[in-house]
């Protein structure tokens, strides 16, 4: 995706490209096959949903063909993690690969241990405490309950992004807000939960035996299998926590 005159312009494939992903199910199958995939184009060639779909279908009239809608469907299904997972931008990680990313991004720390060792902020803890109490919550309610806002803590979006990148929280679904007349409006709001609530505590932490560099190398090798021409520096920029 590039910006031209202030507008987003997608860089997808041709509608007739035989390698084009056409349906949400095809995208889910592809993510399961490759293990993980950013939503938008990045420095690693061919390593994004954008480069596997047609530009005309994004934000189009048919939601069944729209990759932007597919991300909502995939998150709702709960089989693949979705969130800000690559260079603070959106993407997907399959269930199989999520523990490896947790091993890499967390380096053996569950959140409480990270906080006790002074490696996580108080603002992060406030969000984690809320999500420990509630199974799933929309981002606006997390913000209020965790004490962010006009007269409270600052930097809510940045803290939420950090926790997603560290694999502590994940998007579970999307839902539009409702007014006093129960009428939906605006863009759908993401609902979040702890990642352990999605895949299970034991499973998410099942690769903790891997050292950070070991997990990182597994991820790098997998990216190279998807994009052999990718440069190491570009891979590291995309996958870093």
Could you walk me through the main structural features you see in this protein, from its secondary elements to its overall organization?
The structure is a single chain. With 241 residues, the protein is α+β, with helices and mostly antiparallel strands. It has one domain (20-234). 41% of the residues lie in helices and 19% in strands. The chain has helices at residues 24-34, 67-77, 98-106, 111-116, 122-133, 139-145, 156-165, 195-199, 201-204, 212-226, 232-239; strands at residues 2-4, 7-9, 36-38, 80-86, 89-94, 137-138, 169-178, 184-194. The strands form three sheets. A three-stranded antiparallel β-sheet has the order 3-5-4. Strand 4 (80-86) and strand 5 form a beta hairpin. The longest helix has 15 residues, at 212-226.
Helix-strand topology string? EEHEHEEHHHEHHEEHHHH
**Number of domain modules:** 1
- Strand residue content: 15-25%
> Averaged pLDDT, please?
94
What gyration radius follows from the Cα positions, in whole Å?
18 Å
- Number of strand segments: 8
Structural class: alpha+beta
- For the largest sheet, list the strands in their spatial order: 3-5-4
